[in-house]
Amino acid sequence: MHGFDFEIIFRTAPYLFKVGLLFTVKLTVLSTIGAVILGTLLAMMRLSSRKALSAVAGGYVNLLRALPLILIIFWFYFLVPYIVGWLTQAGRPIAVGGFTSALITFTLFEAAYFCEIMRAGIQSIPQGQLGAGYALGLNYRQVMRYIVLPQAFRKMTPILLTQMIVVFQDTSLVYVLSLTDFLGAANNVAQRDGRLVEMFVFAALVYFLISYAASRSVKVLERRMAIVR
């Protein structure tokens, strides 16, 4: 039985970070940005006085939150080429690439969770501030843009960042599609060199260190924001 080989970790670390971790971080940041934007729109729809808009947004959120993420990853990976082909009227599936498919999947899925975060943030703003905005002659869109949303984002920043850490961890699921995220890159090395234990232990350590450091940073930010308030 071979001992634990540290040398392979040092030898392959540049590849794992440059290729795998870069993929993971890029997917995390872009999908989080897209999910926050879409989630905010969904939150505003859920709080709308128009029942149709509220029902559509509510149905979307409840559906996405009730399905396993890995199932949605498979769905979109195989369905997105057909959807793009239909939208472009190409008459055939259009290859969009694994990264694009994963980005669309995570954006749409995580938007359901960011929607609930932003909905709570919007509802936490006192109604008197909305009334004051209307009294100044602002319309609904302006009140949301200049008064409500800036305060809601500020209040919910720690929770938004915490959810971003969850997104970072969840991106490891694209490994099942053979994409070269950090876990996928570690698996490639493990399969090539027959060092599964070393590679998966190292991958787990990296995920832990990044997630732990990010969590501690969020807690520090939350305490500072509490002092300012």
How would you name the oligomeric state of the polypeptide chains in this document? Answer: single chain
Instruction: Give the N-terminus to C-terminus distance in angstroms.
Output: 59 Å
CATH-scheme architecture:
Orthogonal Bundle
Reported for the largest beta sheet, the result is: none
Would you report the number of β strands? 0
Indicate the proportion of strand residues: under 5%
Strand/helix succession: HHHHHHHH
Q: Count the DSSP helices.
A: 8
CATH level 1 class label: Mainly Alpha
Mean pLDDT: 89
Number of domains: 1
Task: Provide a descriptive summary of the structure in words.
The protein is mainly alpha-helical and 229 residues long. It has a single domain (7-228), classed as MetI-like fold (Orthogonal Bundle). The chain is 82% helix and 0% strand. The protein is built from eight helices and no strands. It has helices at residues 6-46, 51-66, 69-87, 98-123, 127-135, 140-170, 182-193, 196-228. Helix 2 (51-66) crosses helix 4 (98-123) and helix 3 crosses helix 4. The longest helix is centred in the N-terminal third of the chain and has 41 residues, at 6-46. 28% of the residues are buried. The model has no long low-confidence stretch (mean pLDDT 89).
